[in-house]
Amino acid sequence: MVAFFCFKTNSIYIFLNLLGYDGISSFVPFFSFIIIVALGVDYSIFLMMRFKEYPELAPKEAIVLASKHTGGVIISAVIILGGTFATLMPAGIILLTELAIAVITGLIVLCFILLPLFVPALMALPDALAKYVSKEKRRGNS
């Protein structure tokens, strides 16, 4: 969702403020939302499956190792998909240009902000909460 709102803000700024268009096509938010959310889920599943391959490691170590092994593959996939959508821009059709910029923006936010920072933080959260709860129980018992 964060990537969706980032692309939406960026698209509005580019097309309304910089290029002076009257608005954005109604198809762009719908299709870009589907593409960005599907890719975000796909990349997150890919990262989580790699994380699950290291049950013997501490969660923080497993997160770092999983991110290290999947990062290059995910970045490569984002670059390829971003390049694919960039080829839509020279077509001269406003809808395709809007969609390309929206998806590329969402991919950049997803790949370079959400996946390296947000998803590992969420993966470490259960372990951190368990430690916090156990500390609180020990304080309550003493």
What does this structure look like?
- With 142 residues, the chain is mainly α.
- It is 84% helix and 0% strand.
- It contains 4 helices and no strands.
- 24% of the residues are buried.
Summary keywords:
142 residues, mainly alpha, 84% helix, 0% strand
How would you concisely characterize the structure shown here?
The chain contains 4 helices and no strands. By secondary structure, it is mainly alpha-helical.
Shape: elongated
Rg (CA only): 19 Å
Q: What low-confidence regions span 5 or more consecutive residues with pLDDT below 50?
A: none
- The run of helices and strands is HHHH
Classify the secondary structure makeup into a structural class.
Answer: mainly alpha
The number of helices is 4
Provide mean pLDDT, rounded.
85
Q: Quote the distance from N terminus to C terminus.
A: 43 Å
Helix content: over 70%
> Which range does the strand content fall in?
under 5%
Number of strands: 0
Q: How would a crystallographer describe the biggest sheet?
A: none
SSE order and pairing:
Blueprint: H1 2-18, H2 27-52, H3 59-86, H4 94-141
